[in-house]
Each structure stands twice: as C-alpha cells, then as structure tokens.
Amino acid sequence: MLNERVKDLKIRKSMTANELMKEFEDMGGFQSRELAIGTNILERMIRDNQCLRMLSFPACLLATGLRGVIREIVKRGWFDLIITTCGALDHDLARIWKPYYQGSFDMDDRELHRENIYRLGSVLIPHESYGKILEERLQPMLENIWKDRSEEKGISTSELAYEIGRRLEKEKRKEESILYWAFKKKVPVFIPGPTDGSVGSQLWMFYQLHKDFQLDLLMDEKQLSDLIWKAKRLGGLIIGGGISKHHLIWWAQFKEGLDYAVYLTTAQEWNGSLSGAKLKEAVSWGKIKEDAKKKTVQGDATVLLPLIVCALIDRL
Asked: What is the pTM of this model?
C-alpha cells in the first residue's frame, strides 16, 4: 500500500494542460488524481483500433461553450458513435441560427419569465432563440426529408440526425454544429428519447399532417446491436447521467461489458439514481467488465472535459 509518495504540485510558467495532468497523477489530490487516471484510460481507449469508442452526454452541455469541445472530439474522430438526448439537438441547432447569452444562477426567474427569457443554469435563452427558430427552420427541413424518403417513411433517430446534419451544408455557421460534423465524419448519433425536447415537439407537429412519417426506434437498436457485436472491445466516455448514460452501458452488457469506461458526474450515489451510480456498480450488472479500465471522476464537465481534451490533443 505504501508504494507511491504524495508529491507537491509544481506550477510552471507556460505549463500545458498535459503537463498539469501529469502532475495530477503524483500529487495525491482528491479528484485531480482521478482525472489524471481517467485521462490515461481515455488515451489508451482512443489508441485501441479494435475498440468501438462510444460517447454519451446530456443536452444541457450544448447550451454552454462546452459544445465547442465536444465538437472538436467529433472532428478528430476519437469516437465511433454518440448517444445523447433530444435536447442536445435543440441546442446544437438553435445556436446555429440564434445566440444564447451568459447569465447567473442567482437571477430572478420571475423577471426572466416576464421578459420571455429561459434560464438554463447560468445560460440565458431568449424565446426567439429556441422554440420559434426551431419551428421556422425544422418544419421545411422535415418536409424535405419526408419527400426524399417517399418509398420509406420510417426513419431511425440516427438517420434523422444524419439527414439534418447533411442539410446544414449551406448554413453559414454549419461548422459550429456537432450534428454537421457527425454527418461529415459519418459518426451516428442515437437519441433514445427523441420526443423529450423541442426537436421532438417539431416531429410531433410534423406528424399531425404526415401520418405516414414514423420514427423507428428499433432500427436504432438494430444498428447499435450490429456495431457492438462486430467490435472486439468496447469503450465509453460518459458525461453526465440519465438516459444517454444508461443506453450506452445497457447495450454494452450484451457484449459482456465495457473494456474502458470514464464517467464524469456531479451526481451522488446515496439516492440510488443511475446518474449517481459509480461505474463499479455497473460491474454487478455486467455492463462493465470486472477487469475493465474504469474511473469515475466527480466534478463539473465544463471544467473537467476541456482539461482532458487539451491533454489528449498533446498526446495523440
């Protein structure tokens, strides 16, 4: 047990994120060391060409500037598929066409309501930057997708995400979009809860006049099944909990679990929630292998993920 001494962190001028991460390994710090170990696992996972590398995250992160970090991950081809929530499409698309603004957790929500401003944590979203603009832009896009698929009206969420990304080609700010880069890099985006968000509401509205337009979620499950069963090993970077986390680890159990797993979370496990569950709990379900390289890191992803990605860019 007494093999590695705690070493003081040495801060240097012009220190890189990767150099800082290396220092984190030896300082015996609480979450800093966990973060360094998690980064090492991700490096190993990304370098493993026989590993199916999966990324999951919730919608809220794309309302922040962390969208740019996740976009960079997709552009660099570090992951083979994405599992996320419907709201991730909402924010990724809305921010192509309208701005979001910086706010505060302590603002008066009654006043914001009267001023037609939504608050998402410390991010402010004017009404015209969300539902209205998504309706204006998505309804014609869905009409176009529906007409192009005249022979086959059923569509999976991954196909829908691909078709939306493809139709962003003429947008001035397309390169800011994760959906656009997922389309360019042929990274499928799966949305297991596709009606729980503004884009889902647009799908519902479109369905009112196009009853033969159908979401086929089982087509998504078939594609996920095919990808997982073809892979020699499985890995996942899981950012936040909820349905996106669960869908990733749920499918991994059918291939005896993840070989690599890193989980970034602020949730606590005492209430029994999936979001609060550490990765070691998933071992009991067979969703993560007993001998997997795994690490749960407690902390805000808007702080942790930029450090991870900066360090990995240096290494890779």
From this structure: 0.96
Measured between alpha carbons, how far is 130 from 117 in angstroms, rounded to an integer? 10
The answer to whether 121 and 60 have CB atoms below 8 angstroms apart is yes
Q: Which among 13, 147, 153, 287 is annotated as catalytic?
A: 287
Contact indicator for 274, 242 with CB cutoff of 8 Å: yes
Interacting residues of 9 by C-beta distance below 8 A, sequence separation 6+: 23, 24, 27, 29
Q: What is the pLDDT of residues 125-171, one digit of tens each?
A: 999 999 999 999 999 999 999 998 867 778 999 999 999 999 999 99
Cα dihedral across residues 133, 135, 140, 144: positive or negative:
positive
Residue with the two structure tokens 């590695």: 4
**Separation of alpha carbons 84 and 261, rounded Å:** 17
Catalytic (active site) residue 287: yes
Would you give the distance in Å from CA 53 to the centre of its chain?
A: 13
